[in-house]
Amino acid sequence: MKAKHPTMTEIPHSSRRAFLRSCAFTATAAVISPCFGASDSSSGMRMGLVTYLWGQHWDLETLIKNCEASGLLGVELRTTHAHGVEPELSKAQREEVKKRFADSSVECLGPGSNENFDSPDPAKLKEAIRHAKDFLQLSHDIGASGVKVKPNSFHKEVPKEKTLEQIGLSLKELAGFAGGLGQEVRLEVHGQCAELPYIRTIMEIADHPRARVCWNSNDQDLLGEGLEANFRMVRPWFGQTAHVRELNIGDYPYPQLMKLMAETHYEGWVLLEARTDPAKPVEAMIEQREVFESLTQSS
What is the pTM of this model? Predict the structure, then answer.
């Protein structure tokens, strides 16, 4: 008697996802590249996408399809974009988002919120923390792993040290909430707080295992003693995501950054947060994946 093979609906979600991912690799490989490998590198890093800017006009179906076609198989869902994955979603809508990703080869890494914690207005700060918690609940409900937040600015009437403390304590509160949901709070190196000594101070104040740094490949990374010193300053707090721009545009030292990540055994997602406006974005995504693979395989 022949063994009965399970149908797709009989395969558990975790196994089905692995199966679909394998199929997507095989099908896409034949079209894109003979050495296509889902943007995996020899160091364990993987490349994905932030929907700012290349994915900002794509609905969720198009976004998943284009990520699968390009091999960028992790995605951070920037708030306000056309995919519509926002805290306002109902329970049923959240389940649908979760299912769409589970039935694809793309991993949803979580929302990229716009919440920041520098405001000297207590009411605005309280509201930002509340909104960030809403995003963390959303991330949990759609099967993702964390939420990006921002530090963000200094204010003339407030000493910098007080602002950094306020951001750090806000992050600590959010990290405690995130821990109960199995989530990370990812502080993007952003705004006037983007100099790495400021980020280090914030993280030392936050002092929570669920409070993580999202490296953002800014010009400020090159200040002071340079990229390596600044990288190592905050490397102990890296989370599951880091941001880069187009890897073959501009003069940011991406080969050195990839080398540092490989040397320090970073095994998270390197997410493309693009600045240009290509006529054929999927082809541009493929190009960036290939550049990434070249950089990481030589690291």
Answer: 0.87
95/109 Cα distance (integer angstroms)? 15
Helix/strand number for the chain, H first, E second:
9, 8
**Domain residue ranges of the chain, discontinuous segments joined by +:** 45-297
* DSSP reduced 3-state for 174: helix
Instruction: Assign domain 45-297 one CATH number from 3.20.20.150, 3.40.50.300, 3.40.309.10, 3.10.580.10.
Output: 3.20.20.150
pLDDT tens digits, residue range 121-172?
A: 999 999 999 999 999 999 999 999 999 999 999 999 999 999 999 999 999 9
> If DSSP codes are grouped into helix, strand and coil, which group holds residue 134?
helix
pLDDT (tens digit per residue) in 219-257: 999 999 999 999 999 999 999 999 999 999 999 999 999
Per-residue H/E/C for 25-53: HHHHHHHHCCCCCCCECCCCCEEEEECCC
